[in-house]
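Now read this:
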Amino acid sequence: MSKSKFFSGQPIFNQLLSFIPTTLIDKVCRETNADYYYKHFKAFDHLVTMLFSSFHQCTSLRELHTGLLANQHRLHHLGIKHTPRRSTISDANRTRPVAFFEKLYHRLYNHHYQAFSPDSRKRKSLVDRLFIVDSTTVSLFSNVMKGAGVIRMDGRKKRGIKAHVLMTAKTELPSFTILTEAAKNDRIIMPQLELLPGSIIAMDRAYVNYKLMKEWTEKEITWVTRVTKSMKIKLLTRNRLKILHKRKGILKDWVIQLGNPLTEEKSPVQTARVISIYDRNTKKKIHLLTNNFTYTPTTIRKLYQKRWAIEMLFKRIKQNSQLNNFLGENKNAISIQLWCTLIKDLLTKIVKDKLTEKGSKKWSFSNLTGFLRLHLYTYIHLMNFLAEPEYALLQHNKGPDQINLQLKLFSF
């Protein structure tokens, strides 16, 4: 008799880690010299340890260490022969290059979610080509980075670490991320963005950069943002609005000259488009700015509204991760923990998307995260288990001998 489809020789944690190719880890490790000066606690061991902490939402090194000790025999399957001491983990968090975890996240994202090629951009839908940029701050309840930012009138300083994120609308995942002190300007991410021709980017007005926006226009990259009061705008023509658009709250569609001819180097002059919209929900007017002259006003509005998806991403990560207590009180340790949190989120999203592809049971992200945390060391087939969780656990608890006995009893 063959074993049940729900049985697995590897626990769920090992199956999750199988989504990270070992060749990818080895390559990134060599590029960043992540194993330099380390004899026993290698970069792979460090990665597994921090992912264990992320999935279990450990709040201290002691909690992490005792958890590893309790599952030491299961970690042997991954090639981890010795459980690291608290001091070993602490030292590695303080000294190992953050670049290893940063590069690994981005390479892993590209491995599972390849960006569209320039040749296929016309065949892709708008959502497939849409990118959203924004930032979120994680507060730090310690003296780390206390000098970040200017001193306010009440004598306090802005403390925290900020994640500057470029998210793809289709995957709802960060495709590019930078971690900085909370006081850093949001525009720090803009020069580092590498967008392909045909891409669309929706951004808040805090990211407005005239020079970069003109470069994007020349590369056939569409951008959508909001008009700011400080913008130098000159009306060129008024586009005629359709009755359908007026009914949907479109107030005006203008072609304008953006920029100041007197400061050409800083804010180069370019032709753009302003679309004014009345939001019936908030009862406020919104003025959108774009370099696209072919999309309808309602399409431009929908593209900008998609920008709120990145707020849901930030909410998802913060709600399903332990970001109140960090395992180290130095910038290096905090950055490593945040990158491992992003890797954990990426692995969970990979599982969720694979279930969707199979047409299996639909999971909310929070429920899926909870199930994975509870069954991290259950020896059960991950994808089959998540497709039929209750039935899978009943079969798993019976064991193969009981299942085979039942098959014999009821086989007439």
